[in-house]
Design goal:
2 domains, 0% strand, mainly alpha, globular, 64% helix
Amino acid sequence: MSSITTIEKRHLEDLFEMSGGFVLKFSNRNRFAEAVRDATGLDIEDSRYASQGTSMAKRLRAFWSQESDQVAGRLISAFVSYAETFNSPDPKMVATCRQIARRLTGESQSFDSITESQFLSHEYPEVKFDHLPIESGFVPVIQQRWQEVRKCMDAGADLSAIILLGSMLEGILLGAAQSNSKAFNQSSAAPKDDSEKVLPHWKWNLSQLIDAAYGIGMLKLDVKKFSHALRDFRNYIHPYQQKISGFNPDQDTARICVHVFRAAVNQLSKSQ
């Protein structure tokens, strides 16, 4: 039995659009069952998940109540990524639900134990892009944007620096996916269309690219987790999303994002 609280269930049900008996944008029960099976290996059509009713939403609620924290957390994490791919959810809601998934899977403890100061205290080499697993013609573009980030930091344009860093990380991971297509496509994080065919890489979002890079060993767990934080901040490129979140990134936030980017570049370069 999972330890999902009543408040957490409300957050999850809001993100997964469960009020009408459906879950997310699953057009039929088979797609829903396949998604659950891919994430957990379990059959949500089993009769034991019909204790509250037979709709997709009621089966999911029963699944949460009966399965372990680890299993429930894995499914929640997969559905959060699905929501980001096919919906346009509030970034704050996404971050809240991701944290629920991390708590359930046990990742939140290790994530919280890595404080900002501890993460920042780890020294990484000066950023060099020559050994990234991307096409060489893409490197000058990244180098130019890196110089722009440094100018933004010097000028106190913290949000601009964060947005640039997020776009650079996404571009580098997209390049890595294109250069390592087979490995990325075989990752459990690879998004698929209605026919279960992996989507072309240019349709992957940053969350999926981060998770896939971690899944195939290009990124380590700490950098994966802080990269998701950078992704959340990067979404403030949309003023409305920043307004509803009520958060204003400052110099400390920008410094952490720079460090995340440097760490990601270092780890991706070593994966060559």
